[in-house]
Design a protein that fits this description.
A two-stranded antiparallel sheet has the order 1-2. The termini are close together. The protein is built from four helices and two strands. α2 crosses α4. The longest helix is centred in the middle third of the chain and has 14 residues. With 89 residues, it is mostly helical.
């Protein structure tokens, strides 16, 4: 998750396969770009759905649906990691 003092990468990478996938809603393509920008530093994105919800002005439920679509279409993988206090997606 973006901690406020760290900015995501300047570029969001959206490959042609995602950009031209007619089954993906436009917001899913934008979300994919943000995930790649946040993944730039560590190789993975650890932002929570609430981060994307605030960033794009969408409900968390909408973000969850968009992420599920990206996972179902094979563009993203989600790994849930558990620590003492949180479930990180």
């Amino acid at each position: 998750m973006n901690q406020g003092n760290e900015q995501p990468g300047f570029w969001a990478l959206i490959p042609a396969s995602v950009r031209y996938d007619k089954e993906l809603p436009p917001n899913a393509k934008l979300l994919y770009g943000e995930v790649t920008a946040l993944s730039d530093k560590l190789g993975y994105c650890y932002a929570q759905n609430s981060y994307f919800s605030d960033l794009f002005g969408l409900s968390e439920r909408s973000v969850t649906r968009l992420l599920s679509t990206l996972v179902d279409r094979g563009y993203l993988r989600v790994k849930r990691m558990y620590n003492k206090h949180n479930i990180l997606q």
